[in-house]
């Protein structure tokens, strides 16, 4: 594989001619580069007018490599050929170098260039690029590649130091200015040139008076008082000072990866490309592997374009439900200058938000938070005068309970995490998790596999009031900005959250009518339950001790929930509209599976005690199966005691239910089967948790016959 390197633009705030005088002092050898033993001039050419100077040298290098490797290779020194083409008229120096030793096994090419700064002709720019291609090297290809990259990186770091060293040496000798080249016919006298060389100048930006006298009117000096160019570079290049100021301290190879990926995007990607900070985030997330970073970045750019994410802050207004019940918001900054986002997850009704808005609205809101975070990072970079590319998130888990482990909600959270991880890498600088309850390990077990390893290392978790002690919150956030609900004195304007009223819940049909891609379209199903016509679903269990989980809301009426087991499969429901087995109504499906000829205790058995659920209740539960076979979950119309004496045929009941709305119930449900080995840890943790929002239902018991372990969480909204 060919290794490539591309440097940023390094700027010397000195004229080109003075830089050239310093550069020439590197030869024939340079004490600042120990590996550079010697150099011999192979050929040299000078034009008659002195504007062009081309010199070719053979350089002798003592590579810092293991003695054994040198012995196997049969060499003590490595030779390179370097060709320098200096053009005083254009004020450019092009350097080309390639290896002479092992040229049939290893191909090394380097190109360097000194030019005049495009915005200030009294400054000099330097760029270099190189490539390394190891064809074969006695089985030590990987070792040689590492040695070569290490040596090259070390020399790159010293490059600017060496020029500055010789500039100081020239200054000590009294040479602070070298006149520009001029055609011989109007060249200044030797006396004038000599006086110019000895004359000190206060600044390289402001030309000396002697310069004005010695140069022709065709090459005037730069006007006095020209403002210093702002931090930054020409549109298509980055300079080292800009990188250090706005992106941070990068190694030469990291700089090269950033520049090469940026150049590739400019050449191949039509449209808006990410800012340099964001390109760097993708590189960091992939350990500066350009190919991997390029792949995920292209996917992200396509995603951003499809969903118009660049305009989300300007074009999308969060629904009022989010503004009222989403318990999160921005709150000052941490001690490192990172924007601080506070999320009171324990006070947030995640299920209510999903049921009222759907997953897409929540996802859009999280995306808008991330876009706002990017904007705040840019602002803080300017305010604090140092690179700030990530934010800190403070998550308060006070109030976290079983309700937050609602599996569809967790799945929605996992999708959000997946989207954020893919499109906003390396934006989380630190995550402070406070007041983690005993139920937290369950949530962490579910979520952590979907979080990148680099991100997980940024998590700090505090249980109880541990955050108030040494190593706690005060190590990361100034005392004056600690939120009041954590014992601080700063009023936090983050919404307090709370339960979303069920009146704001929307059905799958309502969300579908809005043409939104909602999580509830694939997870939730609606069903109608009529008097005498229960709704039933079939779950086949192959492995004993599997876990059947359910979550449902009683949207209308009162129902009785039952679970049955049968060794044989019920007959598929008939599709006749008047039959008792299958009814389709505008409000949802109704399917009956238990045959009228079946007898309880003979053909099927009840494995859970019946559970009466009132209108408006949400129910979550699980059943650990003992036997394989067929399990039937049933939602049945709950008759009031006064109506108990009424007895109508099932078909008649169905027909009556179609005409009498008071005999109709509606449920929205979700079920899932998981292996017991994936669930038992969660069971023990949940059973030990205590919360004000959820409780273990006394109405559901474990049947000794089925050896089940079951939990049901129920709550009502006031």
TrEMBL record:
CDD domains, from UniProt? SEC14
Query: Source gene?
Result: SEC14L1
Q: Which SMART domains match?
A: CRAL_TRIO_N (SM01100), SEC14 (SM00516)
Q: Which domain of life is it from?
A: Eukaryota
**Gene3D superfamilies found in the cross-reference section:** CRAL-TRIO lipid binding domain, GOLD domain
Domain CRAL-TRIO: where?
318-494
**What are the UniProt keywords, alphabetically?**
Cytoplasm, Golgi apparatus, Immunity, Innate immunity, Phosphoprotein, Signal transduction inhibitor
Q: Where is the PRELI/MSF1 domain?
A: 3-175
A GO MF term: protein sequestering activity
What binding partners and quaternary form does the record give? Interacts with RIGI (via tandem CARD domain); the interaction is direct. Interacts (via GOLD domain) with SLC18A3; the interaction is direct. Interacts with SLC5A7 (via GOLD domain); the interaction is direct.
Span list, region Disordered: 214-234
> What GO terms in the biological process aspect are recorded for it?
choline transport; cytoplasmic pattern recognition receptor signaling pathway; innate immune response; negative regulation of RIG-I signaling pathway
Q: Where in the cell is it found?
A: Cytoplasm; Golgi apparatus
What's the protein name? Answer: SEC14-like protein 1
Quote the function comment for this protein: May play a role in innate immunity by inhibiting the antiviral RIG-I signaling pathway. In this pathway, functions as a negative regulator of RIGI, the cytoplasmic sensor of viral nucleic acids. Prevents the interaction of RIGI with MAVS/IPS1, an important step in signal propagation. May also regulate the SLC18A3 and SLC5A7 cholinergic transporters.
What residue stretches are annotated with the GOLD domain? 520-673
Q: What species was this sequence derived from?
A: Equus asinus
An annotated GO cellular component:
cytosol
**Database matches in Pfam families:** CRAL_TRIO (PF00650), CRAL_TRIO_N (PF03765), PRELI (PF04707)
């Amino acid at each position: 594989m060919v290794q490539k390197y591309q440097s940023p633009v390094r700027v010397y705030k000195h004229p080109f001619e003075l830089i050239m005088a310093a550069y020439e002092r590197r030869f024939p050898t340079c004490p600042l580069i120990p590996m550079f033993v010697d150099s011999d001039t192979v050929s040299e050419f000078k034009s008659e007018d002195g504007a062009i100077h081309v010199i070719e040298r053979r350089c002798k290098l003592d590579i810092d490599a293991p003695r054994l490797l040198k012995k196997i290779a049969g060499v003590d020194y490595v030779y390179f050929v370097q060709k320098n083409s200096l053009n005083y008229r254009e004020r450019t120096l092009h350097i080309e170098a390639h290896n002479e030793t092992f040229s049939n096994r290893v191909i090394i090419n380097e190109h360097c260039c000194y030019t005049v700064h495009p915005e200030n002709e009294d400054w000099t720019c330097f760029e270099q690029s190189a490539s390394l291609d190891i064809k074969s090297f006695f089985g030590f290809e990987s070792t040689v590649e590492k040695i070569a990259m290490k040596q090259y990186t070390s020399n790159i770091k010293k490059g600017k130091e060496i020029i500055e060293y010789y500039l100081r040496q020239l200054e000590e000798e009294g040479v602070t200015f070298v006149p520009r080249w001029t055609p011989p016919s109007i060249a200044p006298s030797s006396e004038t040139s000599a006086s110019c060389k000895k004359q000190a100048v206060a600044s390289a930006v402001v030309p000396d008076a002697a310069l004005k006298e010695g140069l022709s009117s065709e090459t005037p000096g730069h006007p006095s008082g020209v403002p210093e160019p702002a931090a930054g570079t020409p549109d298509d290049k980055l300079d080292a000072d800009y990188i250090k100021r706005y992106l941070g301290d990068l190694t030469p190879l990291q700089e090269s990866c950033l520049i090469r990926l940026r150049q590739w995007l400019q050449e191949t990607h039509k449209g808006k490309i990410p800012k340099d900070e964001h390109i760097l985030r993708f590189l960091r997330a992939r350990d500066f592997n350009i190919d991997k970073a390029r792949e995920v970045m292209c996917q992200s750019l396509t995603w951003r374009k499809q969903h118009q994410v660049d305009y989300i802050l300007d074009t999308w207004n969060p629904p009022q439900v989010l503004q009222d019940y989403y318990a999160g918001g921005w709150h000052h900054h941490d001690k490192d200058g990172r924007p601080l986002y506070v999320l009171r997850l324990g006070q947030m009704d995640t299920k209510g938000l999903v049921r009222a808005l759907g997953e897409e609205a929540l996802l859009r809101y999280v995306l808008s938070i991330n876009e706002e975070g990017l904007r705040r990072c840019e602002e803080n970079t300017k305010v604090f005068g140092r690179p700030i590319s990530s934010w800190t998130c403070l998550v308060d888990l006070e109030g976290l309970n079983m309700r937050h482990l609602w599996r569809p909600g967790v799945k929605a959270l996992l999708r959000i995490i997946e989207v954020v991880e893919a499109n906003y890498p390396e934006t989380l600088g630190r995550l402070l998790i406070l007041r983690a309850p005993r139920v937290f390990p369950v949530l962490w077990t579910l979520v952590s596999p979907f979080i990148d390893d680099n991100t997980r290392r940024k998590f700090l978790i505090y249980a109880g009031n541990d955050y108030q002690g040494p190593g706690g919150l005060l190590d990361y956030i100034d005392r004056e900005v600690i939120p009041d609900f954590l014992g601080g004195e700063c009023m936090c304007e983050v919404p307090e959250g709370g339960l979303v009223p069920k009146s704001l819940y929307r059905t799958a049909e309502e969300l579908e009518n809005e043409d939104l891609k909602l999580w509830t379209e694939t997870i939730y199903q609606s069903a109608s339950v009529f008097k005498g016509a229960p709704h039933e679903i079939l779950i086949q269990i192959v492995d004993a001790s599997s876990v059947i989980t359910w979550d449902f809301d009683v949207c209308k009426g009162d129902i009785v929930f039952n679970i049955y087991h049968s060794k044989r499969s019920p007959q598929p429901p008939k599709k006749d509209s008047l039959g008792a087995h299958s009814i389709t109504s505008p409000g949802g499906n109704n399917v009956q599976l238990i045959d009228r000829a079946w007898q309880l205790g003979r053909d099927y058995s009840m494995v859970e005690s019946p559970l009466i659920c009132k209108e408006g209740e949400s129910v979550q539960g699980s059943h650990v199966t003992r036997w394989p076979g067929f399990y039937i979950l049933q939602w049945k119309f709950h008759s009031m005691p006064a109506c108990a004496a009424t007895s109508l045929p099932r078909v008649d009941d169905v027909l009556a239910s179609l005409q009498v709305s008071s005999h109709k119930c509606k449920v929205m449900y979700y079920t899932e089967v998981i292996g017991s080995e994936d669930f038992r840890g969660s069971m023990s943790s949940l059973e030990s948790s205590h919360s004000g929002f959820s409780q273990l239902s006394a109405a559901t018991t474990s049947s000794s016959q089925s050896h089940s372990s079951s939990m049901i969480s129920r709550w009502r909204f006031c």
